[in-house]
Amino acid sequence: MNRYICDSCGFSFNFSQVPSFCPKCGKEGAAARDTRKAKETARRMIAELNDEDIPVLESLHAGYIAQLAKINAKLETLRQYKKRGIVAPEEMPVVVLKSARDALKEYREQRREEKENA
């Protein structure tokens, strides 16, 4: 028996061969997907995340946090200098930090524009 998912209603069921209709919604000719390939893909993706992607992201995040701490320390020193008149307000660097959510949104918009212009 193979496990299939109806593309019409999403019902998951077991059949020995690709069914011609969904046993739940009855839609004839509804394409049914064999879940074995999806399971293999999911296992591969989990392994890639655990072995490659997550360690890289954690390393990048640690580096980002360390660099951010250095920047914040420098900015705080400069703010103190500005209060004492050592540094003019117009000399102060402007730092705009984006949240991960905003950065991802911007990245997706750029990708969408690239696809539309291609």
Give an overview in words:
This protein has 118 residues and is mainly alpha-helical. The chain has one domain. It is 57% helix and 10% strand. It is built from two helices and three strands, in the order βββαα. It has a three-stranded antiparallel β-sheet. It is elongated, with a radius of gyration of 27 Å. The model has no long low-confidence stretch (mean pLDDT 86).
Quick overview of this protein structure:
This protein is mainly α and 118 residues long.
Structure characteristics:
2 helices; 118 residues; three-stranded antiparallel β-sheet; mainly alpha; 3 strands
Structural class assignment: mainly alpha
Give the integer mean of the pLDDT values.
Answer: 86
Order of neighbouring strands in the sheet with most strands:
2-1-3
Oligomeric state of the chains in view: single chain
Task: Count every helix, treating DSSP H or I runs of 4 or more residues as helices.
Answer: 2
Measured distance between first and last alpha carbons: 44 Å
Rg? 27 Å
Estimate the helix proportion, in percent.
Answer: 55-70%
Low-confidence stretches: none
Biggest sheet features: 3 strands, antiparallel
Q: How many strands in all?
A: 3
Domain unit count? 1
How much of the polypeptide forms β-strand, as a percent range? 5-15%
Order of helices and strands: EEEHH
Q: Given the C-alpha coordinates, what overall shape results?
A: elongated
How are the elements arranged and paired?
Blueprint: E1 2-6, E2 12-15, E3 32-34, H1 35-83, H2 100-117
Antiparallel strand pairs: 1-2, 1-3
